[in-house]
Amino acid sequence: MIKHNWKKWLACACLLVLCLALFKEAALADVGNSFSGGGGSSGGSYGGSYGSGGSFFTFLPFVMSPSGLIILLVVIAYIAFFTKQKGNPNRRTMGGVNSYSSPGFSSNIGLNEDAVVSRIKENDPNFAAEPFKTYVKEVYIQVQEAWEQKKWNQIRPFESNALFNVHSRQLQEYIDMKQTNYMNRQNIRSCVIADYRMDGEYEVVTVKLDASLLDYVLDDETGKLIEGSKSEYQHRSYRLEFLRKNGVKTKAEEGISTTNCPNCGAPTEVTSAGQCEFCKSIITSGDYGWVLNHYGKW
C-alpha cells in the first residue's frame, strides 16, 4: 500500500507544479473573499485579498525545458494510469458519511458524524442531526444570496456580531468599487457534522459543506467580467462553525428556523444590534440558539 501511494503522491506533486507553471491562479471571491487566498472569515480574524499568479509566458521557458517536458510526461502517464482503474473511486463511505474525491472537494475520510452527534446529545438530548443540517444549508444559501444582492442586513439573525461586522466591511468594498460578486446555480452536494467542542462559555459545532457554484465578479456599470467565470463551475468544501452558549438546549419537537426568533418564535425581524424587535432579545449572541461564527475554506 505504501509503495503504491508514494507513486500516486509523486504524480500529484508533479501535476501541481505543472499547473502552477502553466496557469494563472484563478481570482475567486465568495462570501468574505473566502476563496481568494485570504482564508476564511471568523469572529476573531479574517482575510480577503484577491489571488494573483504569474503569466503563462513567464513560465514558458521552464515548460519548454527538459525538466518541464519530463513533468508533462509524468502527468500524462498519471492520468492514463488512473483513468484505467475500474469501479467508481469517487464515492465511498466511512463512519456513515459519504466521501468524495472529486476535484475541488476535500475528502470526508476520517469524519464520523454519528460519533460527533452522540457527543452533542450527551449535553443536549433533543439535538438531531437532520434538522440541524437543514438549518445549516438554509443559512449557507441565505448568506450567499445576501452577499450577491448586497443586502447584508438579511443575514443579521444568523451571524455572530463579530462575523457580521467583518462581512459587512468586506461587502462594502464591493459596493464602493461598484462591483457585484455573483454566485449562481448553487448545488449543495454534502453536509457533514464534523466536530464538536467546548470553547470557554460556548459550544461549537463544525460543519463540512460541499457545494458547486458559478462564482464571478462583474462591474456594475459596464457589465465587464472582472474575476471568475460565468460557465466554469467551482467545487468547494466549506468550514462553517456554529456556536451557542453552554446550557442552551434544543426545544423538544421543535426544529431550527431561519424565519422565526429562536426565543419568542415571532417572524425574524432583527435590529442592527442583533435584537429581536418583538421580544427584545439579542439573538445573535448564541444565548438562544446556534449562530454562524466562522465561514471559510475547509
UniProtKB/TrEMBL annotation:
<feature type="signal peptide">
    <location>
        <begin position="1"/>
        <end position="29"/>
    </location>
</feature>
<keyword id="KW-0472">Membrane</keyword>
<feature type="transmembrane region" description="Helical">
    <location>
        <begin position="53"/>
        <end position="82"/>
    </location>
</feature>
<dbReference type="InterPro" id="IPR007379">
    <property type="entry name" value="Tim44-like_dom"/>
</dbReference>
<protein>
    <submittedName>
        <fullName>Tim44 domain-containing protein</fullName>
    </submittedName>
</protein>
<keyword id="KW-0732">Signal</keyword>
<feature type="domain" description="Tim44-like">
    <location>
        <begin position="113"/>
        <end position="297"/>
    </location>
</feature>
<keyword id="KW-0812">Transmembrane</keyword>
<dbReference type="Pfam" id="PF04280">
    <property type="entry name" value="Tim44"/>
</dbReference>
<keyword id="KW-1133">Transmembrane helix</keyword>
<dbReference type="InterPro" id="IPR032710">
    <property type="entry name" value="NTF2-like_dom_sf"/>
</dbReference>
